[in-house]
Here is the input.
Amino acid sequence: DQQVKQNSPSLSVQEGRISILNCDYTNSMFDYFLWYKKYPAEGPTFLISISSIKDKNEDGRFTVFLNKSAKHLSLHIVPSQPGDSAVYFCPVYNFNKFYFGSGTKLNVKP
Amino acid sequence: DAGITQSPRYKITETGRQVTLMCHQTWSHSYMFWYRQDLGHGLRLIYYSAAADITDKGEVPDGYVVSRSKTENFPLTLESATRSQTSVYFCASSTLAGGRETQYFGPGTRLLVL
Here is the structure.
């Protein structure tokens, strides 16, 4: 069973608008959550993280929201830029392991 | 060069052959990981290592063997390659200080098993 689910395989957004990427997880014991971005032919790179003791973390244009009761995580990108076009993963950390979802491909149109 | 590197970047092999994918990191990170990326599955953990000579299974370890005789190297071996092992393989390293550090990924190895 997948520990992490990203139910939207793709998302298309106009440049300058908000991109919202979503992630659901199954285990309420998970306590550390991350977002990674991946360009084609490259490895994933870290974007932002959040601990379960917080419900929001911001870093520039990127904000991650955590809803523990719903076991739901979201990433907001404002404003979206064409360079943000990539696949986004939301791994969760538990006991030395990171569990990844299937990813959401974001396309930011100029 | 500093960072994490993988070799080869591309590999074509035949069913039944043994293949070894190499991973090297220059940060002296204690933790290293191997993932495979397949369409619809995202990244799935194959094996990980907490330190030299300490390895453990991930989600999909069958058909793979790892070793970690030195902190900086973490090779992944497919003992008898199968078509289902055609995938993109990513190596990653992490300090996992306090259990919360991020991972740094290599560029990936694209493996095709014919």
User: Anything to note?
Assistant: The first strand of chain B starts at residue 4 and ends at 7. The domain at 4-113 of chain B is CATH 2.60.40.10 (Immunoglobulin-like). Chain B touches chain A at residues 4, 31, 33, 35, 40-45, 48, 50, 56, 58-59, 90, 92, 96, 99-100, 102-108 (CB under 8 Å).
